[in-house]
């Protein structure tokens, strides 16, 4: 009798183990289906020519479907540790999405103001008012002479990312 | 196998195979409903009907809708609205029903709260109902996104961004949900799948569960009286219909439901034909543009209260980021109703007007929800921000105080 019970238990556990492996494999497959496609992951490079920028007037570029703010700082704007220095010029490079809920702030008199929930960011991308929990995010980039390529993590990016983490 | 004899009618033939007579008794003619209930109990039938309207109108819209970011906007605003005969009608029927269904859900929920219908014995009715509410919200949101207008796009942007608040995996989770780095084609097609298949199927399953949860503890009544349904049903069946406190669902009680349904449908079709625009935000008639945010983003009216709780906390408190407090408050607002049966510490089931403090609590909740809804639509600046803040705090406090209030009511009653 006890032998029989053990045998049934064993069959039961075996079935449960097979079902668990199959279930986990299915979940992994389903998770993968929802991941971004290779074409989406690959299409992620944008080159920006820095020489075309005017000091004090930020331009918006598109990278991975997101707006990217690039501001060449004018002399009256404060220096920041997140400034990208190319030659003698200082630049703010940031993903142009409010870090609160992802709206696009507009440039108004030296600050980026988000209309949705009133968040404000200064010329260095630092949040100065409202609900945004952190400065504007830094997109990965690489400096090549007078251009930056968004999508690659160059040494200049690493340096600024470090100061942002600190 | 059971014994099968030659059937004399189609009904008999089916009854031998499907036992439809018993099924009919259990579900309809001997499903007992208390006599002492008012028109507010008709909301269930109204909701079932509105859901039916949504499904049927949705099927017709689906025949012309194209879930592709290049085609979606025109397939709705040109093909369905201009070309398809009566396409405009099906869109308005669908859009208005999607809005009105939430009005009825809120009345249904508040009725349950007022009469204590979530209390001991009926917790599963309440929980399955809350699951339905959450699934309806997900269905409403996923459907709102499909026309791919500006408000659709930015609603999707904001809502998917909320998942970024999840600790550690937040950012990766947002990309995973969207299937892209921002809200894009992959997002639209998967939300289309959710809206037209997965969520409706889940809703149907939950409606089945919700009906079933009602069958054992039976429906509550206006005086929250504890009725012995078996004894009362016995009286009714023995011919003592006048003294019995219950009546059968079919064909007696349903006639009252249908009368309320008639009034509701007049109101509903009045909206469909003359005021459909209340369910159509003007901003959504601009095609989605990922590079321009509309000046002022707000959700549909039925999400405004929880949206205002989310953004009500606009400054850091005790070193915690305003963003995180908002998210926690938002999660609280959407989760707290689930545990309502256990926050109510009063051991007796009574309607609110027989529980003095709870009565005040109930109406304060209603007023607070209205304040949150109104201010959720206004720009969050100056005084508005502060009204939103205090209304959000009041909402949380109401639920913190509920166990104390209900216990006090019980004590005073002695």
UniProtKB/TrEMBL annotation, chain A:
GO terms for cellular component: membrane. Keywords: 2Fe-2S, Disulfide bond, Iron, Iron-sulfur, Membrane, Metal-binding, Molybdenum, Transmembrane, Transmembrane helix. The chain crosses the membrane at residues 12-30. It holds the Pfam family Rieske. One of its GO terms (molecular function) is metal ion binding. The keyword Signal does not apply. Its cofactor is [2Fe-2S] cluster. Residues 45-150 form the Rieske domain. InterPro entries: Rieske_2Fe-2S, Rieske_2Fe-2S_sf, Rieske_Fe-S_prot, Rieske_Fe-S_prot_C, TAT_signal, TAT_signal_bac_arc. It comes from the Bacteria. This is Ubiquinol cytochrome c oxidoreductase PetABC, [2Fe-2S] subunit. It comes from Aliarcobacter trophiarum LMG 25534. The gene is petA.
TrEMBL record, chain B:
It comes from Aliarcobacter trophiarum LMG 25534. This is Cytochrome b. It is found in: Membrane. It is a multi-pass membrane protein. Keywords: Electron transport, Heme, Iron, Membrane, Metal-binding, Respiratory chain, Transmembrane, Transmembrane helix, Transport. Signal peptide: none annotated. One of its GO terms (molecular function) is oxidoreductase activity. One of its GO terms (cellular component) is membrane.
